[in-house]
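Retro notes (design track)

What went well: tokenization of the new backbones is finally stable.
What didn't: we kept losing track of which sequence belonged to which structure.
Fix going forward: every design gets posted as structure first, then sequence, in one message. First example under the new rule, 130 residues:
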């Protein structure tokens, strides 16, 4: 069985970005977790790279690449919020702010990646004469 990557283009990049951003952030104790500082690191490089690949090789639009790959960051933050609120209902009273901060950080990394991917796409089309 072969996989049609045009249909499932987002799954590998999103999953890798979700875990490379999430795991280090989830390991920070709640009392020391600070946004956006807790999100900076190799995970954002993976978000950027996933956006490059999604834009350059999937054939999807710039905006779709940004929205899908950038959403891995707030998804990782919300996963932590959900787990910690289930354990201690009074924690994360300001979770909407956490979500917005994470969305901005993820979008910034994804925009840079999608721009680089667009540049690669443009160069490849120019080279082949498409």
């Amino acid at each position: 069985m072969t996989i049609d990557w045009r249909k499932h283009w987002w799954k590998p990049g999103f999953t890798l970005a979700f875990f490379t951003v999430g795991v280090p952030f989830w390991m920070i104790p709640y009392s020391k977790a600070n946004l956006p500082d807790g999100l900076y690191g190799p995970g954002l490089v993976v978000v950027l790279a996933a956006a490059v690949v999604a834009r350059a090789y999937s054939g999807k639009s710039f905006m779709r690449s940004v929205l899908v790959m950038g959403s891995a960051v707030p998804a990782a933050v919300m996963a932590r919020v959900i787990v910690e609120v289930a354990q201690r209902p009074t924690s994360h009273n300001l979770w909407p702010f956490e979500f917005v901060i994470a969305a901005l950080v993820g979008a910034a990394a994804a925009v840079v990646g999608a721009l680089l991917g667009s540049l690669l796409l443009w160069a490849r089309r120019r080279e082949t004469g498409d």
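Added context from the reviewer: The longest helix spans residues 95-128.
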